[in-house]
Amino acid sequence: MERKIKESGNHDDDFNAIKKDMLRKPFQWVAATHHFSEALTRQGMDLLSNACYKGPIHYFPDYEITRSITLEKHLVTTGFLRLQQSKIDGMNINGDFKEIHIIDPTTSDKTKKDVFAEIMQRNNYHMDEVLVVGDDLHSEIKAAQDLGIDALVYDKYNVHPEDIALPKINHFGQLATFI
């Protein structure tokens, strides 16, 4: 897909910015933000909707710390169902979560905010009992804020400004302070 995007010229942005966003954002968001042509967006959707990753994936070493946390954990992620599930399987983290929710924008209009609200309702969680930990200020962090849930930014590579008004960690060992 990277080659197709680069060679197509059917976008109006710097390829390095596109590539950076592709690593962290859903394809649909990248296509809209970088003004991909309709044809390029369709090609990407067709390619990625059937993609999957085969083999092991190594998560950040500090993730191991989260396995010792005995609180109920839920994973909420957005992306193509088959690809996201293959990444979860590749990291072998299925058993670390009470529930795993993959929001596939090609098949669902749900947002992370919707899923967080459903999780809270289904499990009878009060918003004071929930902490959303995420790396995307405009996705899960915003969804948590919109629902009045405490949020914590996991910023492994210090990509978010120091002046954000939320607590931020760059290592899961720092999580214990907030739970």
Number of strand segments: 5
Query: Mean pLDDT, rounded to whole units?
Result: 89
Tell me what portion of residues adopts beta-strand conformation.
5-15%
Structural class from helices and strands?
Answer: alpha/beta
Write the H/E string, N to C.
HHHHHEHEHEHEE
Count of helical stretches: 8
Rg (C-alpha, Å): 17 Å
How are strands sequenced across the largest beta sheet?
Answer: 3-4-5
C-alpha termini separation: 40 Å
Characterize the biggest β-sheet. 3 strands, parallel
What coarse outline follows from CA principal-axis ratios? globular
Low-confidence segments, ≥5 residues, pLDDT <50?
none
Helix content: 25-40%
Offer a few descriptive terms.
179 residues, two-stranded parallel ribbon, 8 helices, 5 strands, 12% strand
Protein architecture, described:
With 179 residues, the protein is α/β, with parallel strands linked by helices. The chain is built from eight helices and five strands, in the order H-H-H-H-H-E-H-E-H-E-H-E-E. It has a three-stranded parallel beta sheet. A two-stranded parallel ribbon has the order 1-2. Helix 8 links the parallel strand 3 and strand 4. Helix 7 crosses helix 8. The protein starts with a helix and ends in a 10-residue tail after the last strand. 17% of the residues are buried.
What are the SSEs and their pairings?
Blueprint: H1 2-8, H2 15-22, H3 27-33, H4 38-49, H5 64-67, E1 74-78, H6 81-91, E2 99-103, H7 112-122, E3 131-134, H8 140-147, E4 150-154, E5 168-169
Parallel strand pairs: 1-2, 3-4, 4-5
